[in-house]
Fold this sequence. Notes:
Elements: H1 5-10, E1 18-21, E2 25-29, E3 37-43, H2 55-74, E4 81-84, E5 100-104
The protein binds 2'-deoxyguanosine-5'-monophosphate.
2'-deoxyguanosine-5'-monophosphate (DGP) binds at residues 5, 14, 16, 28-32, 40, 86, 92-95.
Amino acid sequence: xxxxxxxxxxxxxxxxxxxxxxxxxxxxxxxxxxxxxxxxxxxxxxxxxxxxxxxxxxxxxxxxxxxxxxxxxxxxxxxxxxxxxxxxxxxxxxxxxxxxxxxxxxxxxxxxx
Length: 113
Ligand code: DGP
């Protein structure tokens, strides 16, 4: 998708700090980390929110969630982690390509859930 920063990262047009990749997803470190470990898991299909997702895209998202425990383990998050999937303006979604935040590497506190 033109002008989508995550599509450009998926295409290799913009560099990223990759932590995992397969046919369904790319996981890379967030440019503006909000925790000691902050990784984004991005399905390899452009859609902004779950409301716009088709069946094939839902399969990619399923594969992301199936793989996240292994990605988290590879990041040393044995003590736990938080997943966030911002949906739309009120949630503060700034990149309109669905992505799953993995946050960890520290006690997260109780302020956000
Ligand atoms: P959200 O607010 O859920 O849409 O989160 C978007 C995240 O994407 C935000 O935490 C910063 C991150 N981000 C934006 N542009 C880039 C980029 O070019 N590279 C990387 N690695 N992360 C980015």
